Amino acid sequence: MTACIRLALLCLLWLALPAGANVRQAPEPELRDLLQRTVSEADSFVDRYDAEVWLLDMSTRLSRYMPDAQARLTLLKQVHHEASKAGLKPDLVLALIHVESRFDRFAISSVGAQGMMQVMTFWKAELGREQDNLTDNATNLRYGCTILSYYLKKENGDLNRALARYNGSLGKTTYSGKVVGYWQDYWYVKP
Hints:
Blueprint: H1 3-16, H2 29-41, H3 48-62, H4 69-85, H5 90-101, H6 122-126, H7 137-154, H8 159-167, H9 174-187
Helix pairs in contact: 2-3, 2-4, 3-4, 4-5, 4-7, 5-9, 7-8, 8-9
């Protein structure tokens, strides 16, 4: 990708970011190199350009919660892979993670849910996989995305009901409203 195209891409991304987002004029050279390596390893994107645009955009948005660029790009690649595999929008999964754990992989709720997507530990026993570590991002994302996808299908595409099921608050709208709010205000990627 030429320097002119990169500059144009960065300008477009800057204009598309939500108000108040933590924005830099251009990515640091180390981040650019890391992003290029990550893009070439990303297997859930249709093409390289889509990967570069999405990863750069989301990395910029996520930087306030995860300062380490390598950790951010690794997580974003995992989120995109697991969400896509489960038929979910990766930006919706980021909004759910934002609400559930604020991107803390070691988060544990008062009822024992673990990891970024706050997966309940009983699922490990249900699957006969007691050895699974729910604070491992790849494992947590696989469980969480699969569960949310299942609930979305069970609720015939009704996102609010699916999110309420995911949270264990079916019949209430507070949780789903919060996730959808973060999705629309901060994480949503316009097609």
